[in-house]
Amino acid sequence: MSAAPSVADVAPRGPSHRAVPLPRGRRSTELAMLCFAIGIMAFAYAAAGLGLNGHVPPGLVVYVAGFAALMAIAHLAVRRFTPWADPLMLPLAALLNGLGIVMIYRLQESGRKGNPGLPISTLTTHAALYQLMWTAVGIVAFIVVLVVIREPRVLQRYTYTLGTLGLILLAIPALLPASHSSVNGAKVWIILGGFSIQPGEFARIALAVFFAGYLVRKRDVLSLAGRRFLGIDLPRGRDMGPILVLWGIAMLILIFESDIGVAALFFGLFVAMLYIATQRKSWLLIGILLFLAGALLAGAIIPHVHERFTIWRHPFAPGTIQGSSYQLVQGLEGMAFGGIFGTGLGQGQPYRTPLVQSDFIFTGLGEELGLTGLMALLLIFGLLVQRGLRAALAVRDPSAKLLAAGLAFVLALQVFIIVGGVTQLIPLTGITTPFLSQGGSSLVASWIVIALLMRISDTARRPAPQSIQDEGLTQVVRAI
Amino acid sequence: MNRAIRRISIVSLAMFVVLMINVNYLQVFRVNSLASESYNPRVFSEQLKNWRGEIIAAGDQGNDMIVAQSKLVKGGLYKRFYPADRVYAPVTGYNSILGSTSPFGRTGIEQAENKYLAGTAPSLAVYNLKGLFTGKPKQGASVYLTISPRAQAAAYQALEAMGKPAAAVAINPRTGAILAMASYPSFNPNVYSTLDSGKLAKVDKRIRSNPDQPLLNRAINATFPPGSTFKLITSSAAFATHKVRDENSSIPAPRFYRLPGSHSTLANDAGAPCGNGHPPILFALTVSCNTAFAKLGVTVGGSALHSMANAYGFNNQKLTIPLPVTASAYPALTDPAQIALSSIGQFNDTETPLQEAMVAAAIANQGTLMRPYLVAQIKAPDQSTVQTAQPAVLAKPISPAVAGYLTTMMKSVTQDPGGTAYRTAGPGATSIVIAAKTGTAQNGVNNSHLDDAVFTAFAPADNPQIAVGVIVKGGGFGADGAAPIAVKIIQAYLRQQ
């Protein structure tokens, strides 16, 4: 509405005669924090080996040096292309990514080469190496985004292209035969040969860009008030179109891909961005009601979703504890086993939880790092979200603002849905934990999100070009 | 848009706060309840590193006997030992490395009292916490059983000597404390203690495929027809409904009884007459006339019999001692022919040996049936008491007066020279005055199998201290197949008093 952009992060304006200290890009802070993050990863890696078999893992130098090199390249790219970007985002993402690699290494070693525990059949002995390679791909994608998108508004040109692309990516798994798209009941993959990606991870980013462009153009119409009901201005009936279409698409995802998590993220992203664009609480209310109705409907008619509800309410039921709720129960018992301080990396039994390397990596970390470690991880995620929202507050371009807020919020929502799911706070859905889970799509997509947020943050924090002649007048600040 | 973004920030913050609270709740407050959840493989594998509590047979004053204990073996792991081998197997069960991960990982007291033995029960948290700070390995609590080592040993030896599938249960009628619970054939629980999972799978497969079913606890989880011992319940119902006044009242006892509404005819054993055809009920029970009690059952009626059987403990699906007990069955009947047969323990009546002992125990305790139980006490590692059993009334099937009539009748079974158990449980067999009832149950299709021998008794008749139920599958006459076993248990138990 009329709140002026936060001035703190924006270059000070005013008479140019006065010597104005340039705001600092704080790249050295970033480097120092990055070293800190890599240091933690190195220690965690050593601790995992010591905990498993009493030896520092032989691959320590390779892994840590490789990872550090990747982060150094990312840092140099940031120095070159987004010198004013937020200095915390890269180190926070690096820390999460590094801990993910360590955990996957620890899990792949379990029960193998004479280590204690049981081997995890769904995890190869190269999993950590692959994760490091996917990190490299993620960093390449990160740099490509920084290089190609020099200004956030460039994205506006591709609003509808990206919207179409996003929908196609979302739809592909539903259209493919199950053998090429289904893993553990969730039909959200494209599997070709030995190679598999989750297009939904990328679709979410494309759609966020699309929503940002679209909603900025339509927000004036969408924020028109219709009838007033219970103290809330309801939107006009004719403006309900977009949200109903989006809801319909979310329901189609649910029905054809059997996964409430992807649908919830997709719909949550849209509702949050719609609310931010229009500032109408009624959209939020309508969105939440539509989502709940959809979830309950899905629970009633889709057996897979219904089962998720049942095991959420009664995970310890004797009928399912050895079957469909086994994974959830093992995750919970693992966390309890870890307690406040955890067993220490390599010393717990996270291998007992099926798919602990992907959907349940949070409980695996909870078992070995304890409550202490989980609180730290949640704080890291929270900080990352907060830095994203901060960029959104500071940037002036409305579509960039909307995009940053949407990406930051959907990151928070993703963490909430998966962490809430594995800790029995909400029904479990199979989505990845950003940066931590094993899997290339999620990791690369997460790095693209960080690149976009850093690009927007750079735009927000970049000092305004000094005006050539001092007009001596207050600049008109467009109300946003 | 910034105001909305700020609000969205608050929503995001709230989501993280909720996650953090939930994680705290899980990893701090729910730790104990999750740890003691069965099917928790982590805790179990960790438990091999802890000293598991002992199981002690403590039914003989000052003569406690350890029947399950943990000893440190290689690699800092504790292994379970059962010094009494198969004698106590139906009581202790076994404790395998599968533990809570499998429904067959643990049985018997090892399963029922696992929380205490493993030390995961919330009431033991304080001891474990002490251990955490002193660095001692975690210790479980010890379980003290009501089992009398003498009675248990006598029971198992007598069953083994008989060599047929059988079980015996002895109860203290005043408290319900189980003094002996033996089953034959049994198994050696030590073989389940192996720390080698491959070996365990082999052993388990071998034992489970054994047609003798050594893992079956016949004392509480197998049911047999009660045969003539059910006449005690028919008599109880007759007294309670005032169809018969006391033990000297006469009841009709024809030589042949044509079952109402059918063409079948019921006779007494070997077609013998029953006294003068109108004998006192005392006589009818002493010699165990079928026609008298079949007719009496029809007079009393199906619903009165059903509720009396229920009061004695039949049809109870929920009884645990704390091992779960299979329900003994006495169906609610309306067809007079079926009622007639069920009154003499035939038709669809089935019972566990424990139920058999409970009938005698209720009569011995002046008509009050105490809840049977196996665990007398649970003691923490520092010997402080965590739990002590409180005897509780399960039901009062009959009045003290009726219990008196029944005691007189049961005494006559062993003391009257015409009684069915005069030879094997009477003055010639033991100096102890035993009150008893024999049963010889026909079974199988068209009664093609060997008869099951059934015997229920309590002693001394005037001052009851032990009630016994014995069932021997294919044991023939109750007096021959089952009574000697009960006598040996009674003698072993009362000698020590």
Which key features would you list for this structure?
heterodimer, A: two-stranded antiparallel sheet, two-stranded antiparallel ribbon, 61% helix, 3% strand, B: 497 residues, alpha+beta, Beta-lactamase, 20 helices, 15 strands, elongated
Condensed summary:
Chain A is mostly helical. In chain A, 61% of the residues lie in helices and 3% in strands.
Task: Give a structural overview.
The complex is a heterodimer of chains A (480) and B (497). Chain A is mostly helical. Helix content of chain A is 61%, strand content 3%. In chain A, the strands form 2 sheets. In chain A, strands 1-2 form a two-stranded antiparallel sheet. In chain A, strand 3 and strand 4 form a beta hairpin. In chain A, helix 5 crosses helix 6. The longest helix of chain A is centred in the last third of the chain and has 34 residues. Chain A is globular and about 70 Å long. The N terminus of chain A is likely disordered. In chain B, the strands form 4 sheets. Chain B has a 6-stranded mixed beta sheet with strand order 3-2-1-4-10-11, with no helix packed on it. Chain B has a 5-stranded antiparallel beta sheet with strand order 6-5-15-14-13. A two-stranded antiparallel sheet of chain B has the order 7-8. With 497 residues, chain B is α+β, with helices and mostly antiparallel strands. The longest helix of chain B is centred in the N-terminal third of the chain and has 28 residues. Chain B has 20 helices and 15 strands. Chain B has a domain of 256 residues: DD-peptidase/beta-lactamase superfamily (Beta-lactamase), CATH 3.40.710. The N and C termini of chain B lie far apart (90 Å). The interface between A and B is large, with 55 and 34 residues.
